[in-house]
Design brief:
It is a single chain. The chain has 10 helices and 7 strands. By secondary structure, the protein is of the alpha/beta class. The chain has a domain at 5-66: MutS, DNA mismatch repair protein, domain I (3-Layer(aba) Sandwich), CATH 3.40.1170.60. The protein has a 3-stranded mixed beta sheet with strand order 2-1-3. Strands 4-5 form a two-stranded antiparallel ribbon. Helix 9 crosses helix 10 (206-213). The protein starts with a helix and ends in a 9-residue tail after the last helix.
Length: 222
């Protein structure tokens, strides 16, 4: 994933913004709402979906740029096409992710670790900060890239173990389910992931149980 996708592109277009706190915003119901945040502004507490007026109160020097419709989608498509050099199978995962099928590819780099190092280095040279993970399922790779603090390679058949310390949001669950888990004090997956299937179905529904168990049916993905 590219946490600051549009902000990174903005800096590529105008290198003078590299040390500027800025957001990219769009009008929503009569208010300007943040769509993307520069790394510097993010470190100072500015987040996506905040109202720009509130952001300016927190950070008066904040620069504001206009968001262009479909800009994330178009940029991800371009980056996905560029990633064909790493794998013949690449899919975009809006608003800020790419899914790369690594099976049969990483040995060309001398292994998964060197493969990731080269990918990160090349993205960095283009001005994009990326967070990456390799796992046997798309779901596990998605969760690890977004919620693990460092680059991570999940050993084969260890997807379930790797997910245990992560928050439920790493399972791509719907907001109502996440809110219910939070109310029950289940802030990490290891608080519920080993509960009997019957109990999970009763509390959260069959769709929830089938959805999260798919995260550890192994196949290598990034």
């Amino acid at each position: 994933m590219v946490p600051c996708l549009l902000a990174n592109r903005k800096v590529r277009q105008d290198p003078a913004l590299a040390h500027t706190d800025f957001v990219i915003a769009a009008p929503v119901q009569g208010k300007m709402v943040v769509k993307a945040v520069s790394p510097g502004a993010k470190a100072k507490g500015i987040k996506a979906h905040m109202v720009v007026a509130d952001c300016k109160t927190m950070l008066p020097q904040l620069e504001v740029f206009k968001w262009e419709e479909n800009s994330e989608h178009q940029l991800l498509k371009a980056l996905g096409a560029w990633c064909i050099r790493f794998s013949p199978v690449v899919a975009i995962d809006p608003p800020d992710g790419l899914i790369i099928e690594t099976t049969g590819c990483t040995h060309l780099w001398g292994g998964e670790a060197l493969y990731l190092q080269d990918l990160i280095k090349k993205f960095s040279r283009m001005g994009y900060q990326v967070r990456v993970a390799i796992a046997g399922t798309i779901g596990t790779a998605w969760g690890m890239a977004r919620f693990c603090p460092s680059t991570f390679i999940v050993p084969p058949h260890q997807e379930k173990t790797a997910l245990l310390p992560l928050p439920p949001a790493a399972l791509r669950l719907e907001t109502p389910v996440l809110e219910k888990l939070s109310k029950l004090g289940m802030h990490r997956m290891d608080t519920f992931i080993n509960m009997p299937g019957s109990a999970l179905r009763r509390r959260f529904g069959d769709h929830f149980y089938k959805g999260f168990t798919r995260h550890w049916v192994s196949r290598r993905s990034l």
